[in-house]
Request: fold
Amino acid sequence: MNNSAHDRWWLATLGRTLIWARLRELDAGTAEVFDSDGATLPFDSVDTARAALMDAEFVEFEGLDESDALERGFSLAEVTPPQARDDASLRALMVQTLGARG
Reply:
């Protein structure tokens, strides 16, 4: 996959389901978000893209600590951002259901 140093992973939670979004900063200062529906949404800036993600109740994965994760219903040890060789393959991994807690 074409991982970029300008990619940032965001997630939202719904019970034990994680919904991922990838924010990619482009060289021109614009941004795009690859969402869980497989759509790539263009934004005029990274700040605008971040605001849209926050409005949709996403949080940046890199900024989470264990306490934040536990409040959302999972442990950081349980999750890692999805990876695939291309966006078509990645689309199927953008929604993850975590196993039941025992």
